[in-house]
Amino acid sequence: MPTIKNLIAREVLDSRGNPTIEVVAESERQRAWAIVPSGASTGAHEALELRDGDQRRFGGKGVLKAVNHVNNKIKRKVRGMKVHNQQAIDELLITMDGTENKSNLGANAILGVSLACAKLAAAEAGVPLYKSIGDRAALLPVPMMNVMNGGVHANSGLEFQEIMIVPAGAATFREALRMGAEIFHTLQKLIGEKHMPTTVGDEGGFAPPLKSHEAALDLLMKAIEKAGYKAGQNVWLALDVAASEFYSRGVYNLKMNGAQKKVKAPELIGYFEKLVHKYPIVSIEDGCAEDDWDGWKGLTDRLGNKMQLVGDDLFVTNPKRLQMGFDEHIANSILIKLNQIGTLSETLDVMRMARQHKYTQVVSHRSGESEDTTIAHLAVGMETGQIKTGSLSRSDRVAKYNELLRIEEELGRRARYAGKNAFAKI
Q: Which of the ends of the chain has fewer CB neighbours closer than 10 A, N or C?
């Protein structure tokens, strides 16, 4: 049985030019690497991303402390462990850290080791990572493509963080990706015709200065039509509201119907209802703030039977918070981000827990990404049916789409595209 012979960690850059950690795991015959993503819109209850705080390097964002934890403390303990025992490796990392939020060693150090070891095990077995995660997996996810950026990801002036297209009407993943790319480029032309900038935000979507969320949605609907598709038939829309970013002391401060307003949850939910009635929106993520459980309850009661309601900051891939959602009948879907919890094993446990309670799952990237394609394999391996990995530009986003194309081709006739079946409400 092969064992881990060495771990090597180093400081590298993510897609925003900020430091992050890369970990290489080695056995006698194989080596594998993983790069840890980093979020800008982070939930207060996420596992801790350890930064150096040294203002002389990268404005305090360096990760040399996390690197040193891997190259010294973690390596000494993990060396000699069996490559294929992912659960034991992850349990050791959790025990070594000894904190609830992984603030001792850092969730970035821990996740880097966890993913590198998982990839090493797959390499030793001679199989791709998705097959190592789910041996019979053959379901390709519907991409939720963030083509218009707002919130903390861009300077568009819109509070909603992401406006996405969802090509669930395609027959294959390859076709869905083509549809998304065609709509993306059509949208670019429309924005250019309005003499607005076509620069993109952190996740590759456009960020034109628009007066309202409705103006953004109208523009996107026009792009879908001009690209030759029908909204609500071939392509749907989805929102990541990221409500925690504009919430304070029980009040939400955002543009509604073209005017800046301060409202409480019931009025915000009423606004969502109007948008859902007007546009073919199939999913809303983080419609209320992470600790506004009453607001979330109202949102779920009023829209939960009509569409997918995704908890990101609400659940932060954490089993305790997800259990609270089950108990209170809040939301019906969970966003899955590996670095919110810190190890692959814990992530898989949360995903199984969500499936058991019939919550849909959306595997997601972060705003700070890299060429690492782990989430593509995670979405296929666990057959989630949905993935968020950004827009149709920036190689850090497109890398995941290209990897899914390779997986689809490798699966051949076994490959299935989740399509409309990924959304119970379509």
A: N
